[in-house]
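User: quick one, fold this
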Amino acid sequence: MTTVRFFARRAAFYLFTAWAAITINFFLPRMMKGDPVSAYMARNQGRISPEAAASLRTLFGLDSDRTLLQQYGDYWVLMLSGDLGRAFSKGLAPVTEVIAVALPWTIGLVGVATVLSFVIGTSLGALIGWNRGSRADVVVPVATFFSTVPYFWMGLIAIAFFSTTLGWFPASHAYDKGAVPALTLDFVGQVIRHGTLPALTIVLASLGGWVLGMRNMMITVLDEDYVTVAQAKGLSNRRVLTRYAARNAVLPQLSSFALALGFIVGGTLVMELVFSYPGVGKLLLDATAAKDYPLMQGLFLVITLTVLVANVLADVAYAVLDPRTRQTEA
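Assistant:
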């Protein structure tokens, strides 16, 4: 019963959070000055008739004949049916199709880089904390230094050194110019080659936080009684490290990792701008500049749901690793 109550409370909390986020997602763009139809008419002066403009407002749910609450109800009906509208800034293409084109690039690059950063940083932090006071401590200030460097500068330095000077990696784009995306070894090789440099900068920029956080938690956990008892039983250092110390020290890291996974879909906007990489971050910037409500709402919806799902998975992992969580919250 304790487990059931725990998951029921968490489910209720996340359902309410999802409703609040979707509601804000609907109203926030409409609080901005202007609208997509007016922005489109300003860019195409004299080429849009009043009748066409009225039709566009109806298409985008901005019809003045319907109140804001009625538009809100229409938004929920369409969203639950899988229709996120049409992207005004992308030739009236369905929002789902526009997002589906950009999403794999962001998940493939930022997702892999985030997971690598977490695994490497957490592992290093655990080893450094276990061997505290050793020469391995020098890794902490070095990793922290890279975390303090503005990502924009780190990206430019990486391009100047690895691309311009050494010529090891391309400086921009996700694949060679003129290449047609296809599931072939040649194209996959292009994607890996183009994605290595931005992925490397993401890993370096975020590594310090994982290392420092895990190291500090390991130092705290090593003073706990259960670690002392495990060592007194004669268990090997490797088992004490993995089964007792690191397992408990990693728990606070899971929440941060869940947030990092959730925001993978949001992309790293600066990275995509520096490396001219196609992704969700750049798409969101373009949609905001064009006041493209449907595309903005679709992107915010995907990002919000991804963050919520990632947090749900983190709660489940947290409860499995630490049963005390279920008992306390239930």
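User: anything notable?
Assistant: The radius of gyration is 24 Å.
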